[in-house]
Amino acid sequence: MGTVRKTITLTEQQDAWIKAEIAAGRFTNDSEVIRDAVRKAQAPALRSTINTEPVEIVEDPWLAAEIQKGLDSGPSHMTFDEIIAEAAAEYSAKNAR
């Protein structure tokens, strides 16, 4: 994943908090603190897009377990095309004769 350089303006209190986080050893620089804060701010929105309800309407126990395994694993960092390619490769390997 690429990065983008940004210039931001903070209050003195926010700057002091960032410096305290670095001094405490939780981060090594300002950028790490900011990125962590952004990730934490994004997390609720990402979680709300994921259906984590138990799989109860699927009658096939194996399929229900596979669906639940996928839900439990959380969001993928792969693109849609990468997921399809991986699934196709696994299918081909399992069904090669």
Keywords summarizing the entry:
elongated, 4 helices, 2 domains, about 100 residues, mainly alpha
Describe it.
The protein is mainly alpha-helical and 97 residues long. It has 2 domains: 9-49; 54-97, no CATH class. The chain is built from 4 helices and no strands. It has helices at 12-23, 30-48, 61-73, 80-95. The protein is elongated, with a radius of gyration of 21 Å. It starts with 11 loop residues before the first helix and ends with a helix. The model has no long low-confidence stretch (mean pLDDT 84).
Shape: elongated
pLDDT below 50 for ≥5 consecutive residues: which ranges? none
The ordered string of helix (H) and strand (E) elements is HHHH
Give the helix/strand class.
mainly alpha
Total count of helical runs of at least 4 residues: 4
The strand count comes to 0
Measure the end-to-end span: 38 Å
Q: Would you kindly provide a brief summary of this structure?
A:
With 97 residues, the chain is mostly helical. It has helices spanning 12-23, 30-48, 61-73, 80-95.
Write the layout of secondary structure elements.
Blueprint (H helix, E strand, L loop, with lengths): L11 H12 L6 H19 L12 H13 L6 H16 L2
